Structures are given as C-alpha cells and as structure tokens.
User: Fold 2-C-methyl-D-erythritol 4-phosphate cytidylyltransferase from Advenella alkanexedens.
Amino acid sequence: MNEKIIALIPAGGVGARAQGSGHSGPKQYRVINGVPMLVHTVKALLSHAGIDRVHIGVAPGDAYIAACVMPEPARVSIHHSGGASRADTVLNTLLASQAADHDWVLVHDAARPGLRADSLAALIQTCLLHDRGGILATPVPDTVKRAVVDNGLEVIESTVPRDGLWLAQTPQMFRAGPLRDALQKARAQGFEVTDEASAMEFCGYAPLLVKGSIENLKVTWPADFDMMAHWL
Assistant:
C-alpha cells in the first residue's frame, strides 16, 4: 500500500492570551529570532524526510500568511480553511489536503515551534511500528492540586495522584480516514474536541503515548516567547 505521511498545522486562531509586547496580530505570526513562529514550526516538521507535505489551515481572511517565506515551499500547501474552532480547522484542512484514508496525518500546533527532531522521529517510528496512532506527551512531574472557589478565592480542594497522568502535546498522528470520521462524529454529537486524541478516544480508540520534551512547549503567554527564543 502506497501510504503517505502528511502534516497539518491549524493556524486559524488569534491566541489572545499571548498578546503583549507591542504585538497585536495572531500569535503564530509573531517574530522569534527574526522569523515568524509559524515558519519555525513548519521548518521543524520538514526536518523529517518522511513527511511528504505540510498543509497549513489559516483563516479565510488571513492577511499575514502571504508575507511568510516558507522553507521548502514545494512541500508546503496553504489552505484558507480556518473554522469556528480548532477542531473545525483541523477537519477542514484535512479534507482540503485530499489525503487518502490510509495516509498518516500528523496534526501539530502552530504555537509549538520547539519540536525536536528526535521527538518527531520517535513518534513517527512508534506509530508506524505498531500501526497505531499516538501523540507526544510528557508525564506530569509536579504534585497536582484540584481547586475550588471559596469566597472568591481559589483554594485547594484535594491533591490528585499524578500516577498515570500525562500532559498532551502535538504532533498527534493518526490515519486520515479514522481521524476524519472521529472529528465528524464528535461535531455531529456535540462533543467538545480539545485535541485530536480526544476525538479518537470519543470513538473508542486508545492512542499511544510517546514521550516528548520540554522544548515542545506551547507558546501561550507573552513570557513564553522569550523562553522559546532562547531554545530556538
């Protein structure tokens, strides 16, 4: 079977929590070390020779993407396929990519430019070896507290055992057909999809966990840009 590996980057959002330091546009276009964050992310994915093409889903009225100089432009496709939610953007971009059902799809956050080549290779190798979808993630290292609000203050209700708890990252790698079907089923039944794995879990699938790294941080707050600039 001639199966491809493609990557999808949902980049249709704004990232309001990351605003600051004089930058008001979508966070994926904020410059880190002279290069838009989105371009760093694309470069990280293209570092793996097994990835056939990177498909980027941007908002229909995106006025920024045209100014991005992509590495290896022959391996990059831009789709104005942004939707009302991240899950909608992923589904729309997956459909636009025209991936065959048996192709593998790596969905990766635009705001994770620090993806390491060895982590990416480990995820791809593990999923292919076991013919099973999976995600990058890291075991929870700290004590976890569950909070409640008491007189307007956040207070600890209980300590949550961290055994078996992982923090999900991306890329998340699944066959195109099952991923499409899971996203469509979740949307039809009103299930809130927080990541691709959650949609697959909703359909009874148990994804693999492959250990990632701290450098694969999702840039969320203004201070995260300085940290990522150091790593990149």
